[in-house]
Amino acid sequence: MSGATPLERLDRLSLELGIDLWLKRDDLTGLGFGGNKTRQLEFYFGDALQQGADTILITGAVQSNFVRSAAAAAAKLGMQSVLQLEERVPDMGEEYYSSGNVLLAQILGADHMSYPEGEDEAGADAALHARADELKAQGRKPYVIHLGLNHPPLGALGYVIAGQELSQQMQDIDAVVVPSGSGATHGGLLTGIALEENGASVFGVCVRRDREKQQARMNTVLQKLADLLDINAAPLQDRINVLDEALPPGYGKLSGMTHAALKKMARTEGIFLDPVYSAKTFAGLLHLVTVGEIQPGQKVVMLHTGGLPALFGYQNELTNDQP
Ligand SMILES: *Cc1c(COP(=O)(O)O)cnc(C)c1O
Q: Residue 41's closest CA among 11, 92, 76?
């Protein structure tokens, strides 16, 4: 990535919602359709290059943006990539397995393997290590990007920088609304704005786990990130604020609320959101306005984390049920 991503005012939505709404365009980070994983991968690939790696192994859902972005970064750096796709989202149609990010990864020349479980981070990481051992035996130099929490959250460092960047772009923000999945984005951004002494409320919209589980996960992510930065985690952990109203019916599945949010952004601002993350984030933001946690007139920034190729993997879901 070079330079800051744009911070764009959403004039029509601001008027409609009675707030001062801005969109931080991390869908425009460049590199193979962009998104939040570009910032995270800079730190993993930096580490991989330092270790002399020639092959990157990474795991994610079938329509994962992380694995697609990793395949793009590997291509740019002249490395091979091995993408492990997990069965995380039940009952999906043919497009889910062939279009969107799956198609892009094929074009990028990535190797594929699959993992039958979608909720077993340790198992998915172990399977990557088993494959890495095979590659080592063949003389390759593999580097594993882990999903589980028992490794330093290098990717979150990219969002520490993003939080600092945002604080420098705009000082008097009342609230920032971000998706909260692995927690690298949420944890990093919260830490970055805290380092800039920015007091904005940071709301994490659950996209994967319910509020209680995500709260616990964020505690761990912030502790590990604070350890990496050699700072005190407690003041960061006090600022964890997660909501899960937009999560049902679960990871990678759309409710009417999410579908409506996706269409509202497109039809009011001409900006696309993705069905798995950013539309849920916007649905969460709309909920916060409805219940008064975001108040009239407040200056609010929503982080657009990208993920747009998944729109094509969700063609059925987006055309069949009308919100
Ligand atoms: C991965 C992803 C997220 C979640 O980010 P985490 O850092 O894993 O919490 C949000 N939005 C998009 C588009 C993503 O691909």
A: 76
